[in-house]
């Protein structure tokens, strides 16, 4: 795997090179000291993966991510110091198409293997994703729909997801009474910060889903763990490690499939921007159950991977631009309510 490094700190570059050197399958193809240089280098020699710092001179990592994803898209992971204090910029970069984020490994930690572990795992997982070895989703059976007045909106997103989720959730009015559950591919270290970030932009309250609770009417619950969020009954969700071989954690497929299996009322499934195929089979299971299923269109997707996979297998009953999805959800739920 060819890797580009974007960082203006010499010590950080040395630390990143040491991590990459631990795996002979990884190769540093270029190093840029600012975002503007990274955009030029990515255009000339597009790598498989870019390790992107946030705070740099000339052009920061958010703008560089936006330009690279627009011109020469590739996998991007934010690697920067003190991610907690830079949470807003992390979510902005992910909204532009970055896949994940991790703290910069340091040279001063006594156990270099331990310090390298988080970043190296993310790099290897992305390698599996790029090679199409993410692990097949377990296709759910499609039981007959059961009568019920409950309404659920199930959302899934990955690269580019924070901004897409903010747009969709921000378009739901304060009086919206359906329950909403969102699964975003994000490390659990950032899940609480993302819930707070989304809450500040939405009329509906947004918080992390708690172990053992069910979907809450008029509330957005965000998956908040590296384990998978499962619906085990209409009134209970749990976090589970299995299937342990899934690259995507938390997996959208896992949640969507359990919605198709266990939800008693009506539902809407929405698959937004993201790299890979997660969510496509789960969305198909929801469609086969008779639910409205929506995939984001190519033109409005930061990364047209997951919605494309859903469209290819007929999982989406409708393919819509991002800006139209919230209004479609509201119309669908209002129609369900009027029928009830």
Automatic annotation (TrEMBL):
<feature type="active site">
    <location>
        <position position="278"/>
    </location>
</feature>
<feature type="modified residue" description="4-aspartylphosphate">
    <location>
        <position position="53"/>
    </location>
</feature>
<dbReference type="GO" id="GO:0050568">
    <property type="term" value="F:protein-glutamine glutaminase activity"/>
</dbReference>
<dbReference type="InterPro" id="IPR011006">
    <property type="entry name" value="CheY-like_superfamily"/>
</dbReference>
<keyword id="KW-0145">Chemotaxis</keyword>
<comment type="similarity">
    <text>Belongs to the CheB family.</text>
</comment>
<keyword id="KW-0378">Hydrolase</keyword>
<dbReference type="GO" id="GO:0005737">
    <property type="term" value="C:cytoplasm"/>
</dbReference>
<keyword id="KW-0963">Cytoplasm</keyword>
<feature type="domain" description="CheB-type methylesterase">
    <location>
        <begin position="146"/>
        <end position="336"/>
    </location>
</feature>
<dbReference type="GO" id="GO:0000156">
    <property type="term" value="F:phosphorelay response regulator activity"/>
</dbReference>
<dbReference type="InterPro" id="IPR035909">
    <property type="entry name" value="CheB_C"/>
</dbReference>
<feature type="active site">
    <location>
        <position position="158"/>
    </location>
</feature>
<dbReference type="InterPro" id="IPR008248">
    <property type="entry name" value="CheB-like"/>
</dbReference>
<feature type="domain" description="Response regulatory">
    <location>
        <begin position="2"/>
        <end position="119"/>
    </location>
</feature>
<protein>
    <recommendedName>
        <fullName>Protein-glutamate methylesterase/protein-glutamine glutaminase</fullName>
        <ecNumber>3.1.1.61</ecNumber>
        <ecNumber>3.5.1.44</ecNumber>
    </recommendedName>
</protein>
<dbReference type="GO" id="GO:0006935">
    <property type="term" value="P:chemotaxis"/>
</dbReference>
<dbReference type="InterPro" id="IPR000673">
    <property type="entry name" value="Sig_transdc_resp-reg_Me-estase"/>
</dbReference>
<keyword id="KW-0597">Phosphoprotein</keyword>
<dbReference type="GO" id="GO:0008984">
    <property type="term" value="F:protein-glutamate methylesterase activity"/>
</dbReference>
<dbReference type="Pfam" id="PF01339">
    <property type="entry name" value="CheB_methylest"/>
</dbReference>
<dbReference type="InterPro" id="IPR001789">
    <property type="entry name" value="Sig_transdc_resp-reg_receiver"/>
</dbReference>
<dbReference type="Pfam" id="PF00072">
    <property type="entry name" value="Response_reg"/>
</dbReference>
<comment type="function">
    <text>Involved in chemotaxis. Part of a chemotaxis signal transduction system that modulates chemotaxis in response to various stimuli. Catalyzes the demethylation of specific methylglutamate residues introduced into the chemoreceptors (methyl-accepting chemotaxis proteins or MCP) by CheR. Also mediates the irreversible deamidation of specific glutamine residues to glutamic acid.</text>
</comment>
<feature type="active site">
    <location>
        <position position="185"/>
    </location>
</feature>
